[in-house]
Amino acid sequence: IFDPWADVKEVAHEYGLSIINSMPDEKYDGVVLCVAHQQFLSLDFSERLKPEGGVIYDVKGVLKQKDACL
């Protein structure tokens, strides 16, 4: 879980989850976008997080069609 705004210790305490606050270097076959933070809206998912053939599930429906369907 990557969330630049969340407090790592608070999330671990409240939800029992481990998160990171810095953008990961690796790419993922599946990405679930659950927030509409500006940092994510301006992100080129194909370049940073998703390899060719990967999937983005846009929970909020905020990505441009071309980004969401890649």
Topology, pairings included?
Layout: H1 8-15, E1 30-33, H2 38-41, H3 45-48, E2 55-58, H4 65-68
Parallel strand pairs: 1-2
Assign the structural class, choosing from mainly alpha, mainly beta, alpha/beta, alpha+beta, or little secondary structure. alpha+beta
- Termini distance? 21 Å
Radius of gyration (CA) equals 13 Å
Give the ordered list of helices and strands: HEHHEH
Number of strands: 2
Question: Strand sequence of the main sheet, in spatial order?
Answer: 1-2
Q: Tally the helices.
A: 4
Proportion in helices: 25-40%
- What's the overall geometry? globular
Query: What fraction of residues sit in β-strands?
Result: 5-15%
Q: Could you report the average pLDDT, rounded to the nearest whole number?
A: 86
Largest sheet: 2 strands, parallel
Poorly predicted segments = none
List the main descriptive attributes of the protein structure presented here.
70 residues; alpha+beta; 29% helix; globular
Describe, in plain words, how this protein is organized in 3D.
The relative contact order is 0.20. The protein has helices at about 10-15, 40, 45-50, 65-70; strands at about 30-35, 55-60. About 30% of the residues lie in helices and about 10% in strands. A two-stranded parallel ribbon has the order 1-2. The mean pLDDT is about 85. It has four helices and two strands, in the order H-E-H-H-E-H. With about 70 residues, the protein is an alpha+beta fold.
